[in-house]
Amino acid sequence: MTYTRDERSMHERLLAGDPYIADDPVLEELSLAARDLAAAYNATSDRQRPMRRRLLEQLLGSVGEDTQIRTPLHVDYGSHITIGSHCFVNVGLMALDVAPITIGDHVQIGPNVQLLTPTHPLEAGPRRDGWESAEPITLGDNVWLGGGVIVCPGVTIGANTVVGAGSVVTKDLPADVVAVGNPARVIKPLPPSDAA
User: Fold this and answer.
1) Which of 33, 62, 84, 86 has the most neighbouring CB atoms within 10 Å?
2) pLDDT at res. 160
C-alpha cells in the first residue's frame, strides 16, 4: 500500500478506498456532523418515532421500511451505511463506516455489535503519521448477529447466516451456516435459504 499524498483530497481518497489521513479537517468535520446527528437520535425515545425516522434518514445513506435501531447508535460518518427493510438493531451498535456498510433486509443485530471497516498500517511509520484505510462490510438478507459480535474490515456474511454471541468474524462467511468463536468458524449448515 502507498502512503503518500497526491492531488486528491483525503475525502476523495477515503471514498476511493485508498489510504487517507484520519485527522484531515474535512473528514473530521464530516464525522463531527454525523456524531451530532447520532447524538440527536440517541436523545430521542421510542415514543418519538417520526422524529427518529427523520434523524435516521438524515444520518444514514439509506434506511428501509419498518427498520428499528435502538439507541445508542455510534457511527463514523453514517452516510456510508445502507440498511434494508424489516431489520432490528438492538442497543449499542458501533458502525464505523469509513468504507460502506451494507445491511440487507430482515437482519437482526444483537446488543453491542461492532461493524468495523477501518484498518491501520502494520508498519509503525505510516501508522504514527496518521494513515488509515478501510474495507467494506456486507451483511446479506436475514443475517442474525448475536450480542457482542465483532465484524472486521472487508467481511461479507452470506444470507441467512447466524453468528453466535461474542464471535469475531475475520473472514467471509457463506450463506446458510452457523458460525461461532474467535475467529468465527462455521460449525454447522442451516437448511438452504429457499427451504426455510
Assistant:
1) 84
2) 97
